[in-house]
Amino acid sequence: MAAPAQSVAVPALSPKLLAVALLSVGVMLLLAYLVGFDQGAVSRSGMYLHELMHDGRHLLGVPCH
Amino acid sequence: MRTFGSLLVRGLIVGLFAGLLAGTFAYVLGEPRVDAAIAIEEAGSHAHTHDHGDSTEPAAEEEEPLVSRDGQRAGLFLATSLYGVALGGLFAVAFTLLRRKLRTGNDAYAALGLAAAGFVGIVLVPFLKYPPNPPAVGDPDTITRRTVTYLLTLVIGLLAVWAGVALSRWAARYGEVARLAGGVVGLVVTVVAAYLILPRINEVPETFPATLLWQFRFASLGTQATLWLLLGFGYAVAVDRRPIRSKVAAA
Ligand SMILES: [Zn+2]
User: Fold this and answer.
1) Residue B60, class by beta-carbon neighbours within 10 Å (0-12 exposed, 13-18 middle, 19+ buried)?
2) Which residues cross the membrane (chain A) (predicted)?
């Protein structure tokens, strides 16, 4: 067996890394929410973005209407 | 070692490309099905207005849509790209936090393994319980319930993958066959238990053509498969340092 430690390409776990990772997850989930579920409440665009991304929602398998 | 920022940016870029190409797949193979379904939907709603008889305000029924069909076809690419970026970012976080737990010395294999796990958990498990539906299928009154159950299947899918990996690692002490069987049993038992507990939802109208329904569903599955496939292979390439090293060595 080769020593795996050498080829592991990720930074060591630390509270700071976990905080930044958690923040990133929040931003990414918000983005996914905007595509999949928002009806203007977050985007402040009324139903415009919702209608614009309608076909994508269906084809990405998200329940739509 | 790469920094978290570098791992994240790679995920976002790979996700953007994967989303754009998944959008292309969806445009070519999915849009014709969506158009056909919308035609059925509109025929249905016209028939409905005829039923009412008292056509006092027919103009109100024909209200101008907020976004035209051409706009929605272009919006498809926006949707898949943003979704790809979001998945790419989440993928990068998962890679960063789980990399050490994956028992391979090869970062590319680790990325491919994670993508396979994500596809099974986030796409395949929800697909089998609640296959996606085109326009004209589905009762608008139940959208909240369908959304919640859909999100539940995502979480359950990821839990099932985790159960499969955990059982497979535990069973590995009994040999290679036990390792494989453990993985399958952990995954399948979790999924089947969840399928039995979750409510059954079937809102496909009797008159909706089954061929079109399944053509749409496979186009949707293909779109998501494209996205995850490109995300996995793209990230595998993006984190692989060997090309840079060999270039340095050659110089
Ligand atoms: Zn819809």
Assistant:
1) exposed
2) 17-37
CB contact under 8 A, B71 and A47: no
Report the number of distinct structural domains present in chain B: 2
Show the domain range for B6.
1-45+73-137+205-241
Q: Residue A21 and residue B97: Cβ atoms within 8 Å?
A: yes
In a domain, B182, yes or no: yes
What's the whole-number mean pLDDT along residues B244-251?
56
Q: Report residues near ion ligand 1: CB below 5 Å.
A: A 64-65; B 135
Q: Return d(Cα B7, Cα A61) in angstroms, integer.
A: 28
Question: Which value does ipTM take for this structure?
Answer: 0.89
Contact check, Cβ <8 Å, A56/B2: no
Cα dihedral: B158, B164, B165, B167 (round 10): 140
Same domain? For B6 and B113 the reply is: yes
Distance CA B4, CA A11 (A): 7
Pair B107, B31 in one domain: yes
Residue B211 lies in a domain: yes
The pTM of this model reads: 0.88
